[in-house]
Amino acid sequence: xxxxxxxxxxxVRMWHDDHxxxxxxxxxxxxxxxxxIYTGEIERGKLxxxxxxxxxxxxxxxxxxxxxxxxxxQQFEPLxxxxxxxxxx
Length: 89
Fold this sequence. Notes:
Elements: E1 3-7, E2 10-13, E3 23-28, E4 31-36, E5 42-45, H1 49-61, H2 63-74
Antiparallel strand pairs: 1-2, 2-3, 3-4, 4-5
């Protein structure tokens, strides 16, 4: 599964041809979560509260880029890297 971003020890991945709704998979310190791109909310799994908040804000800020990657993934195209929350201004 391609890594599209890493920040603050979190790894954000997206699978090719994955099931809707558009989402990312986040790993952090032994936790794993499926996060909805539209809402930034955890749909499945768990993250620590602070990590979940950072991921939510990042998803909402980078929603257009994430949705673009989602479309690429549905077509089995290479995904584009997205800057991490530690690089956001």
